[in-house]
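Handoff note, outgoing to incoming analyst
You'll be picking up this chain. Sequence as last confirmed:
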Amino acid sequence: MKGTIALITLLASSAAASAQLRNPARDSLRDIGGVYVLVDSLNDDLQKSGLTKDLLKADVESQLRKADVDVFADERQQALAKEVGNREPRSTTYLYVRIVSAGDPSDVKRAFSVSVQLHQTLSTSQRDGPTTFFGPSWSADQVGLAARPGLRQRIQDVVKELVDRFSSDYLAANPRK
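Most recent structure output, in case you need it:
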């Protein structure tokens, strides 16, 4: 019995300590001031399923707005927001959505990969001083398999799930006052 209580106490304190650990990917979302959405080109297979860049971009932007994440129409709007004193966005911060599908053309099922990444200017500390570069600071990925007739809906569901993860991390890093 003592061993069980000790184990439960250890697990509870370990869980509490884990909850307090920093999440560098989520921390990188702090004070970004919003994003614009960039959807990568879609292969022919995805386009035949009914997916388009415009449809996906509109879906993601709508989802972000509903979650209270600031969305910029483009880089110019992002720069303007910075000039007029809104929360200061980092330059060229965008949410990148990449979807790829593959499989034998005669196969009924298609394999797919969905990646959602936040790209922004990053910096590191080096002996010679800070170095800045552009790259992803947050990402979520998922692979799956779907029947051709349901490919479009399955991919839209996965994109929604990954954007929900982003929105949740964004709001945790930028609590509304």
